[in-house]
Each structure stands twice: as structure tokens, then as C-alpha cells.
Input
Amino acid sequence: MPERSTSRLVESATLVRAADSEPLYGESIDGSVLANLQALAADGAPDILSELIELFAESTPQLIGAARAALHDPSVLSSFAHAMKGSCSNFGARRMQTLCGELEELGRGGNTSGADKLVSAIENEYKEVRRLLEQYHVAA
Amino acid sequence: MSPPDPAPDGSTESVHDRLAAAVVPKRRRVLAVEDDAVSARILATILKQLGYDVLTASNGEEAWRLFEAEPTRLIVSDWMMPDTDGLTLCERVRARWNTPYTYFILLTANRTTSENYTLATNAGVDDFLTKPIDRDALQMRLRVADRILKFTAEVRKLKELIPICVYCRKVRDEGDYWERVETYIQKETGSRFSHGACPACAEEEIARFRAESAGA
Output
């Protein structure tokens, strides 16, 4: 674990309660998952977290847009929801993961009723997750 | 059982181990198949950190093309991918003729049903790992994979030793030439032999020498 100044340690501690795996800001992000990603950075991939956040920021809006375009097609909607679920789970984004899972199940059941609200909720949660990730990355 | 005497080069590896080592590449290659960019980056990073040469594919079709061009002994693949999914990829790998065994690890969601696990096992999947990928869990799976691949390499190599003359113990190689066992093993594995006589043969030779000396 790299050494940090005291002030940065306090800031980090409020964001990442990795030791007891408490989620941050309700159900948004599981700090222990982020800690695992930090471990990758410590093992020869120092820029991994910023690269992953960038990839997440590139791919997720596209998937959300594709999901919106597929509101009439349950199976396609389900596959996009599954993809988003997998992607955000890498960051421990629990609430977003749950929402995507609900959308996936909705599509698997051949249903799209309420899908538009779910997609909007996912989009809002994605923005919050991205904000938290970028904040965490700056603090790390 | 006492450890083997050191070979002339100082190695204490048995012929058995060196046979296996000769057919299992020292630099391990893995084909990583994942359609999500974030998951793919994490998977490739972990595999490289664990010492693997990593080939990446972002979908099942691309993975199949890479595998057909040069089969890898190890594949880690996502299950749910558009068009050709991980299960279909595994079925194709298993069906490929005259292909050394490939250890196939499938990445699954954390709520995979038992029916789906059965489906995957029937398709030839060797092991499963839930997402998001945990480095320690992946490392343990890969250690098992290395062990299994070593065993399959040994079996394959042993099969190649079957054509042996029952009289003179010469072995027939891939080119249909009969050659001494030690020449064959040295050629295949680089092992060298320290020639001696086993107790039974030593006794026989001594008896023969004595008989010849007595008759002379």
C-alpha cells in the first residue's frame, strides 16, 4: 500500500471503507471491490484504475443508448442490461448492478413494461457511480 | 523411495518430469475472451500479472478464428456474449479434430442456475469463475489448469512410446525409424543417460565372464 499524507488518508477513509466492506453512499459502491482494483495497480499496472474508468465512461453511455433503442425488444434489451451489469460489477457498483439485473430479468421474461423507467434509473445511477469513481481515483 | 541420483548436468528431475516438461511449453499462453471492455482489461491484466502470454478476443467468433490459427492449451471465456457465446466456443474447441487438450474456464454471473452449470459441463467446460473476477480465485483455478494440462501432456507423450520392440527394446519414432530407447528419449526430452547395469544383468554378465574365463 503506497504511503499517503494524513489528510489524503482521512479523505480516502471516508470514501473507501475497504476493511469492513461497507458500501459507500448507500448501495452505490462496494469499497472492497475498488480495493481489489487498487491491488492490480500496485502489481505493475499503475494506471489501471484510470484506464478502467475511461473504458467504463466510453462503453456505458453507448449501452444505455442501445438499451433505450431496444425498449420494444425484450431479448435485445436483456442482453444490453446483462452487459451493463457485468461492466459495473467490476467497480462494485451494487445499486447499478441491481438495476441492470432487474432490467435483464424483465427482458428475459419477455416484458418491457416499465423498462423505460429502469433505463432512466440506470442512467442516473451510472452518473453517480462515475462521479464517485473519479473522486476515488483522485483521492487514491 | 529415495530421490533420484543427480543427472550428469546436476539436475535431479526424473525422466518422467522432464518428459512432461518437454511437451508443456514453459511460457504459458492463454486465450482470454470477453466482450465487455472493462472486464476484458481486468482479465488481461490479471493474467499477465500471473505470468501468462495473453491473446485477447472480444467475441466468440474472433476467439474461434484465433484458436483455429494456433490452438492454445488454456481458454478463459465469458459465457454470455452476442452471436457466438462461451458455451458454443467450448463445444467447437472440444469438437476440433486432433487438437491437444484445452482447459476451458467459463466466466459466469453470480446467480447461475444448476441447470446452466450442467449445460456448461456437458459442453466440455472444465471450471467456472464468477464475475467480477477475483485475482486469487483465478490464480487457484489456473494452478489446477496447469496441473491438468501437465497430466494430459504426459498421457499424450506416453501414447507415443507404445511402438517398442519386445526383443531389443528399440522404439519406433514418428518417422518410422527404429532406434534405441535412450536415443529416442534424449531426442524428445534432452535427457542424457548414465549407463550402468541393473543387479540382474550384472549378475548374468559376471556369470558369463566367469564361464568364458573358465573355458579359456
Summary: Chain B has eight helices and seven strands. The mean pLDDT of chain B is 84.
